[in-house]
Design a protein that fits this description.
Elements: H1 7-26, E1 29-33, E2 36-45, E3 49-54, E4 60-63, E5 67-71, H2 77-87, H3 91-106, H4 115-128, H5 132-145, H6 152-163, H7 168-179, H8 185-199, H9 203-214, H10 222-235, H11 239-251, H12 257-275, H13 279-294, H14 305-324, H15 328-348, H16 353-365
Antiparallel strand pairs: 1-2, 1-5, 2-3, 3-4
């Protein structure tokens, strides 16, 4: 049977396909940096460094962590089809399209860099389908087949989340592999291992890891690890160790405000506990707590533990001063100061255990909430 399509139509069809392919290849890459989408040509895309040349301007090289997203101009069209099929709950079609997209990369129809995002989205697809081991294997391919790709850190982070379905031991396997990476990934993995240990109440193990990361020069996780040391010592009720560690933090001019507030609140509370009825020592505790309070409450109320602790130390100290005051007017002044700190807790953190405790302390002072 003779074809209804003549040679001219066939040539036109092929020409159109070639034009579409050329058009796709000619599309610019895009990066998102600081919330701004930039059309460019990417010449390096590792998790450590990304180099791109904007449509106007010289080449730019930045840390991989400064880039929020990357889309290649020659991304296989089958990848978009696969993702659309997955969203439309068409798993068979999605699978075919993921395979097709990967073949485009293997066949050099798209740059090799496209392989990592294909595998990442494919891993997401398998995870959503409940195939945990398949998803983990697909995500691992990013690390074994795509070198230091910009998607390498994300492959670990997604794998860690996917592994939750299999339990802590599977999560530990992911983090143990990640721990062997260069910084900053190594410290990120260690922090994850410390947090897993903490959830199992293995505080000694968590403390050891936090100390290791805190002592790692240049680690972006160092400050968080120092806070991990502080919180873990507190959970373990190691008061003398906390006294020593807080002093070390307060003596270090480079200590962040959050750590200074935590250490200051603890130090003030420790001083008050040891002060007894010594008015000089009580005043020293008030001064130390005041420095912690002066740093102000954190933006997020759930992170106000140390700010509230400093307020409570000040309240207890003034209550102690009131109890020992000889003159009625002094007693009343100290009582007013104590209640002021407690009222701030009640008003700012209503509905929390902090507010409930402060309310009880107000009752003990004989002060009504207002």
């Amino acid at each position: 049977m003779k074809s209804a399509f003549g040679p001219a139509v066939a040539v036109a069809f092929l020409a159109g396909a070639a034009a579409a392919s050329a058009q796709q290849a000619a599309q610019p890459d895009t990066v998102v940096r600081e919330g701004v989408t930039i059309k460019c040509r990417i010449t390096k895309a590792t998790y450590q460094l990304v180099t791109y040349t904007p449509e106007k301007g010289p080449p730019v090289t930045v840390k991989g962590s400064e880039i929020q997203s990357i889309t290649f101009g020659d991304e296989p069209m089958a990848l978009a089809s696969a993702r659309n099929a997955a969203r439309a709950s068409l798993p068979d079609k999605a699978l075919v399209k993921f395979e097709e997209a990967l073949k485009d990369v293997d066949g050099k129809k798209a740059r090799d860099w496209n392989k990592a995002p294909i595998l990442l989205y494919w891993g997401d697809f398998l995870s959503d389908r409940g195939d945990v081991m398949g998803a983990l294997a697909m995500l691992k391919r990013i690390r074994t087949e795509c070198g230091d790709s910009w998607w390498r850190p994300e492959s670990y982070r997604k794998a860690f989340e996917v592994a939750k379905a299999k339990g802590i031991e599977t999560q530990k396997e992911v983090l143990t592999e990640m721990k062997a990476e260069p910084e900053p990934l190594a410290s990120e993995a260690k922090m994850g291992l410390a947090e897993l240990a903490a959830t199992r109440n293995e505080h000694d193990e968590a403390l050891t890891i936090y100390r290791e990361v805190a002592g790692t020069s240049g680690s972006p996780q160092a400050e968080a690890a120092k806070m991990g040391v502080f919180r873990t010592l507190k959970l373990m009720k190691k008061s003398s160790d906390l006294d020593e560690y807080s002093k070390k933090l307060l003596d270090d001019a480079a200590t962040t405000p959050a750590l200074q507030q935590a250490a200051g609140a603890w130090a003030a509370g420790s001083m008050l506990e040891k002060a007894g009825k010594d008015r000089v020592k009580i005043r020293a505790a008030i001064f130390a707590a005041g420095k912690a309070i002066a740093m102000g409450p954190p933006d997020r109320k759930e992170e106000a533990e140390d700010y509230v602790a400093a307020l409570r130390v000040s309240a207890k100290a003034y209550a102690a001063m009131a109890a020992e005051a000889a003159k009625p007017e002094q007693k009343e002044e100290y009582k007013v100061r104590a209640s002021g700190y407690l009222m701030e807790i009640v008003r700012a953190y209503r509905g929390t255990p902090w507010a409930e405790a402060a309310s009880l302390e107000l009752q003990a002072l004989g002060v009504k909430e207002n």
